[in-house]
Write a structure and sequence with these properties.
Blueprint: E1 5-18, E2 21-27, H1 31-34, E3 40-43, E4 54-57, E5 60-62, E6 67-73, H2 80-85, E7 92-99, E8 111-116, H3 121-132, E9 156-162, H4 170-174, E10 178-183, E11 190-191, H5 194-200, E12 207-212, H6 214-226, E13 230-235, E14 250-252, E15 264-266, E16 273-275
Protein backbone atom coordinates (compact mmCIF):
# COMPACT_ATOMS: atom_id res chain seq x y z
CA UNK A 1 0.00 0.00 0.00
CA UNK A 2 1.33 3.43 -0.95
CA UNK A 3 2.49 5.68 1.84
CA UNK A 4 0.37 8.63 2.90
CA UNK A 5 1.52 11.52 5.04
CA UNK A 6 -0.10 14.11 7.27
CA UNK A 7 1.70 17.42 6.90
CA UNK A 8 1.45 21.09 7.66
CA UNK A 9 1.86 22.55 4.19
CA UNK A 10 2.83 26.14 3.47
CA UNK A 11 1.00 28.27 0.92
CA UNK A 12 3.37 29.27 -1.89
CA UNK A 13 0.80 31.08 -4.00
CA UNK A 14 -2.93 31.37 -4.60
CA UNK A 15 -4.87 33.13 -7.32
CA UNK A 16 -8.44 33.29 -8.59
CA UNK A 17 -9.19 31.80 -12.00
CA UNK A 18 -12.64 33.41 -11.96
CA UNK A 19 -16.14 32.09 -11.43
CA UNK A 20 -15.35 30.70 -7.97
CA UNK A 21 -12.34 28.68 -9.15
CA UNK A 22 -9.06 29.02 -7.23
CA UNK A 23 -5.51 27.93 -7.98
CA UNK A 24 -3.54 27.01 -4.84
CA UNK A 25 0.12 25.91 -4.64
CA UNK A 26 1.38 24.27 -1.45
CA UNK A 27 4.89 23.41 -0.32
CA UNK A 28 4.98 19.89 1.11
CA UNK A 29 7.51 17.75 2.87
CA UNK A 30 6.90 14.28 1.38
CA UNK A 31 3.56 14.31 -0.43
CA UNK A 32 4.72 15.77 -3.75
CA UNK A 33 7.42 13.14 -4.26
CA UNK A 34 5.00 10.30 -3.42
CA UNK A 35 2.03 11.52 -5.48
CA UNK A 36 0.76 10.22 -8.82
CA UNK A 37 -1.57 11.78 -11.37
CA UNK A 38 -5.19 11.05 -10.45
CA UNK A 39 -4.65 10.97 -6.70
CA UNK A 40 -5.99 13.56 -4.27
CA UNK A 41 -5.27 15.14 -0.91
CA UNK A 42 -7.56 15.87 2.00
CA UNK A 43 -7.31 19.51 3.08
CA UNK A 44 -8.36 20.57 6.58
CA UNK A 45 -9.84 23.97 7.35
CA UNK A 46 -8.05 26.08 9.94
CA UNK A 47 -11.51 26.67 11.40
CA UNK A 48 -11.53 24.06 14.16
CA UNK A 49 -15.34 23.83 14.07
CA UNK A 50 -15.04 22.12 10.66
CA UNK A 51 -13.85 18.64 11.55
CA UNK A 52 -13.99 16.92 8.18
CA UNK A 53 -11.43 17.69 5.46
CA UNK A 54 -12.26 18.39 1.84
CA UNK A 55 -10.83 16.08 -0.85
CA UNK A 56 -9.20 17.97 -3.72
CA UNK A 57 -7.63 16.32 -6.78
CA UNK A 58 -4.04 17.06 -7.69
CA UNK A 59 -3.84 19.41 -10.65
CA UNK A 60 -0.07 19.69 -10.51
CA UNK A 61 2.84 17.86 -8.89
CA UNK A 62 6.31 19.42 -8.86
CA UNK A 63 8.48 16.65 -7.50
CA UNK A 64 11.66 18.75 -7.72
CA UNK A 65 10.27 21.69 -5.74
CA UNK A 66 8.12 19.52 -3.43
CA UNK A 67 4.98 21.45 -4.30
CA UNK A 68 1.47 20.41 -5.24
CA UNK A 69 -1.11 22.44 -7.12
CA UNK A 70 -4.81 22.31 -6.28
CA UNK A 71 -7.40 23.90 -8.56
CA UNK A 72 -10.76 23.80 -6.80
CA UNK A 73 -14.21 25.37 -6.78
CA UNK A 74 -15.67 27.18 -3.77
CA UNK A 75 -18.88 25.30 -3.02
CA UNK A 76 -20.65 27.95 -0.93
CA UNK A 77 -20.49 30.41 1.93
CA UNK A 78 -19.23 29.07 5.22
CA UNK A 79 -17.69 25.99 3.61
CA UNK A 80 -14.18 24.63 3.96
CA UNK A 81 -13.44 25.56 0.36
CA UNK A 82 -14.38 29.17 1.09
CA UNK A 83 -11.90 29.05 4.00
CA UNK A 84 -9.21 27.77 1.61
CA UNK A 85 -9.90 30.62 -0.83
CA UNK A 86 -8.76 33.12 1.82
CA UNK A 87 -5.34 31.51 2.25
CA UNK A 88 -2.40 33.70 1.26
CA UNK A 89 1.34 33.18 0.78
CA UNK A 90 2.97 31.99 4.00
CA UNK A 91 -0.21 30.61 5.56
CA UNK A 92 -0.18 27.03 6.77
CA UNK A 93 -2.77 24.32 6.26
CA UNK A 94 -3.01 20.68 7.33
CA UNK A 95 -3.20 18.12 4.53
CA UNK A 96 -3.25 14.33 4.25
CA UNK A 97 -2.07 12.50 1.18
CA UNK A 98 -1.47 11.33 -1.40
CA UNK A 99 -4.75 9.40 -1.24
CA UNK A 100 -6.52 6.97 -3.53
CA UNK A 101 -5.31 5.25 -6.67
CA UNK A 102 -4.25 7.29 -9.66
CA UNK A 103 -4.38 6.60 -13.39
CA UNK A 104 -2.68 3.52 -14.83
CA UNK A 105 -1.65 4.34 -18.40
CA UNK A 106 -1.52 1.78 -21.19
CA UNK A 107 1.71 2.42 -23.15
CA UNK A 108 1.41 2.82 -26.89
CA UNK A 109 -2.37 3.16 -26.95
CA UNK A 110 -3.59 6.48 -28.33
CA UNK A 111 -5.56 8.21 -25.62
CA UNK A 112 -8.36 10.64 -25.02
CA UNK A 113 -7.79 12.69 -21.87
CA UNK A 114 -11.21 14.06 -21.02
CA UNK A 115 -12.16 16.46 -18.24
CA UNK A 116 -15.48 18.05 -17.41
CA UNK A 117 -16.02 21.03 -15.11
CA UNK A 118 -13.96 20.76 -11.94
CA UNK A 119 -12.85 17.35 -13.29
CA UNK A 120 -10.63 19.23 -15.75
CA UNK A 121 -7.69 20.05 -13.39
CA UNK A 122 -6.48 16.51 -12.58
CA UNK A 123 -6.12 15.73 -16.29
CA UNK A 124 -3.38 18.36 -16.61
CA UNK A 125 -0.88 16.45 -14.47
CA UNK A 126 -1.75 13.23 -16.28
CA UNK A 127 -0.98 14.91 -19.61
CA UNK A 128 2.33 16.21 -18.30
CA UNK A 129 3.32 12.83 -16.89
CA UNK A 130 2.42 11.04 -20.13
CA UNK A 131 4.64 13.45 -22.05
CA UNK A 132 7.44 13.06 -19.53
CA UNK A 133 7.10 9.27 -19.38
CA UNK A 134 6.46 9.42 -15.62
CA UNK A 135 3.35 7.27 -15.24
CA UNK A 136 2.05 4.15 -13.59
CA UNK A 137 1.67 1.40 -16.19
CA UNK A 138 -0.08 -2.01 -16.00
CA UNK A 139 1.71 -4.39 -13.65
CA UNK A 140 3.16 -1.56 -11.58
CA UNK A 141 0.02 -0.73 -9.57
CA UNK A 142 1.61 -1.90 -6.32
CA UNK A 143 4.80 0.03 -6.87
CA UNK A 144 4.66 3.18 -4.72
CA UNK A 145 7.33 4.87 -6.80
CA UNK A 146 7.03 6.54 -10.18
CA UNK A 147 7.71 4.40 -13.25
CA UNK A 148 10.03 6.38 -15.50
CA UNK A 149 10.09 5.79 -19.25
CA UNK A 150 11.88 7.52 -22.12
CA UNK A 151 9.67 10.02 -23.88
CA UNK A 152 5.90 10.13 -24.18
CA UNK A 153 4.10 6.95 -23.17
CA UNK A 154 1.40 7.43 -25.82
CA UNK A 155 -0.15 9.89 -28.25
CA UNK A 156 -3.13 11.79 -26.94
CA UNK A 157 -5.88 14.27 -27.66
CA UNK A 158 -7.29 16.35 -24.82
CA UNK A 159 -11.01 17.15 -24.71
CA UNK A 160 -12.47 19.49 -22.09
CA UNK A 161 -16.08 20.29 -21.28
CA UNK A 162 -17.37 23.46 -19.64
CA UNK A 163 -20.76 25.05 -19.11
CA UNK A 164 -19.94 28.35 -20.79
CA UNK A 165 -17.15 30.77 -21.68
CA UNK A 166 -15.78 30.67 -18.11
CA UNK A 167 -13.08 28.19 -19.01
CA UNK A 168 -9.77 27.65 -17.22
CA UNK A 169 -6.38 25.97 -17.81
CA UNK A 170 -6.89 25.89 -21.60
CA UNK A 171 -3.50 27.41 -22.47
CA UNK A 172 -1.69 24.90 -20.27
CA UNK A 173 -3.47 21.97 -21.89
CA UNK A 174 -2.60 23.27 -25.36
CA UNK A 175 1.08 23.13 -24.37
CA UNK A 176 0.73 19.38 -23.78
CA UNK A 177 -1.22 18.09 -26.78
CA UNK A 178 -3.91 18.91 -29.33
CA UNK A 179 -6.80 20.22 -27.24
CA UNK A 180 -10.51 20.53 -28.00
CA UNK A 181 -13.29 22.24 -26.07
CA UNK A 182 -17.03 21.76 -25.72
CA UNK A 183 -19.35 24.20 -23.96
CA UNK A 184 -23.01 23.66 -23.23
CA UNK A 185 -23.95 27.05 -24.69
CA UNK A 186 -21.51 26.93 -27.62
CA UNK A 187 -19.62 30.04 -26.49
CA UNK A 188 -16.26 28.25 -26.88
CA UNK A 189 -15.49 25.35 -29.18
CA UNK A 190 -18.17 22.77 -29.95
CA UNK A 191 -21.69 23.36 -28.71
CA UNK A 192 -22.68 20.41 -26.57
CA UNK A 193 -20.66 17.91 -24.57
CA UNK A 194 -17.26 16.24 -24.88
CA UNK A 195 -18.60 13.45 -27.09
CA UNK A 196 -20.00 16.09 -29.45
CA UNK A 197 -16.49 17.60 -29.62
CA UNK A 198 -14.97 14.19 -30.36
CA UNK A 199 -17.42 13.60 -33.21
CA UNK A 200 -17.19 17.12 -34.65
CA UNK A 201 -13.41 16.93 -34.83
CA UNK A 202 -13.37 13.28 -36.03
CA UNK A 203 -11.07 12.25 -33.20
CA UNK A 204 -10.05 8.64 -32.61
CA UNK A 205 -8.34 6.81 -29.77
CA UNK A 206 -7.86 3.40 -28.19
CA UNK A 207 -8.42 4.32 -24.55
CA UNK A 208 -10.18 7.00 -22.50
CA UNK A 209 -8.93 8.55 -19.25
CA UNK A 210 -11.57 10.84 -17.79
CA UNK A 211 -12.65 12.84 -14.76
CA UNK A 212 -15.86 14.80 -14.40
CA UNK A 213 -19.52 14.72 -13.43
CA UNK A 214 -21.41 11.44 -13.39
CA UNK A 215 -23.53 12.07 -16.52
CA UNK A 216 -20.33 12.67 -18.51
CA UNK A 217 -18.65 9.53 -17.17
CA UNK A 218 -21.77 7.48 -17.86
CA UNK A 219 -21.87 8.71 -21.46
CA UNK A 220 -18.16 8.00 -21.93
CA UNK A 221 -18.56 4.48 -20.60
CA UNK A 222 -21.30 3.86 -23.18
CA UNK A 223 -19.22 5.48 -25.94
CA UNK A 224 -16.24 3.31 -25.06
CA UNK A 225 -18.33 0.14 -25.11
CA UNK A 226 -19.81 1.10 -28.49
CA UNK A 227 -16.35 1.70 -29.97
CA UNK A 228 -14.58 -1.23 -28.26
CA UNK A 229 -12.33 1.08 -26.24
CA UNK A 230 -10.92 0.79 -22.75
CA UNK A 231 -12.17 3.50 -20.40
CA UNK A 232 -10.83 4.59 -17.01
CA UNK A 233 -12.81 7.08 -14.97
CA UNK A 234 -11.97 9.16 -11.93
CA UNK A 235 -15.18 9.43 -9.96
CA UNK A 236 -16.11 12.64 -8.19
CA UNK A 237 -17.86 11.90 -4.93
CA UNK A 238 -18.38 13.69 -1.64
CA UNK A 239 -16.04 12.02 0.85
CA UNK A 240 -15.81 12.06 4.62
CA UNK A 241 -12.76 10.29 6.04
CA UNK A 242 -10.86 10.02 2.73
CA UNK A 243 -9.06 6.85 3.86
CA UNK A 244 -11.71 4.14 3.38
CA UNK A 245 -12.85 3.74 6.97
CA UNK A 246 -16.34 5.28 6.98
CA UNK A 247 -17.89 3.80 3.78
CA UNK A 248 -19.51 7.16 2.96
CA UNK A 249 -18.35 7.19 -0.67
CA UNK A 250 -19.04 3.68 -1.95
CA UNK A 251 -20.08 2.88 -5.51
CA UNK A 252 -21.70 -0.23 -6.98
CA UNK A 253 -19.30 -2.68 -8.60
CA UNK A 254 -19.32 -6.03 -10.39
CA UNK A 255 -17.21 -7.76 -7.76
CA UNK A 256 -17.53 -8.00 -4.01
CA UNK A 257 -15.33 -5.76 -1.91
CA UNK A 258 -13.10 -7.68 0.50
CA UNK A 259 -13.60 -4.95 3.11
CA UNK A 260 -17.43 -4.95 3.18
CA UNK A 261 -18.19 -8.28 1.42
CA UNK A 262 -20.82 -6.60 -0.76
CA UNK A 263 -20.77 -5.32 -4.35
CA UNK A 264 -19.32 -1.98 -3.36
CA UNK A 265 -15.98 -0.26 -3.59
CA UNK A 266 -14.80 2.79 -1.69
CA UNK A 267 -14.10 5.63 -4.10
CA UNK A 268 -11.56 7.20 -1.76
CA UNK A 269 -9.64 3.94 -1.26
CA UNK A 270 -10.04 1.62 -4.24
CA UNK A 271 -10.61 4.66 -6.49
CA UNK A 272 -11.06 7.38 -7.38
CA UNK A 273 -9.88 5.88 -10.69
CA UNK A 274 -11.70 2.75 -11.87
CA UNK A 275 -11.98 0.71 -15.03
CA UNK A 276 -15.43 1.82 -16.23
CA UNK A 277 -16.39 -1.82 -16.82
CA UNK A 278 -16.04 -2.50 -13.08
CA UNK A 279 -18.42 0.14 -11.75
CA UNK A 280 -22.04 1.18 -12.18
CA UNK A 281 -22.32 4.80 -13.30
Amino acid sequence: MAEKYEEIAVVVDQSSLGNGIYDLTLKTDKIAKAAKAGQFVSVYSNDKSKLLPRPISLCGINRDDDTIRLVYRVTGEGTGTEDFSRLVMGDKVRILGPLGNGFTVQPGKKAFLIGGGIGVPPMLQLARDINAGIVQTPGEEKNPGQAACKGAVCDMNIVMGYRDENTFLLDEFKEQAASFVATEDGSVGTKGNVIDAIKENALEADVIYACGPMPMLRALKAYAAEHDMDCFVSMEERMACGIGACLACVCKTKDKDAHSNVNNKRICKEGPVFDAKEVEL
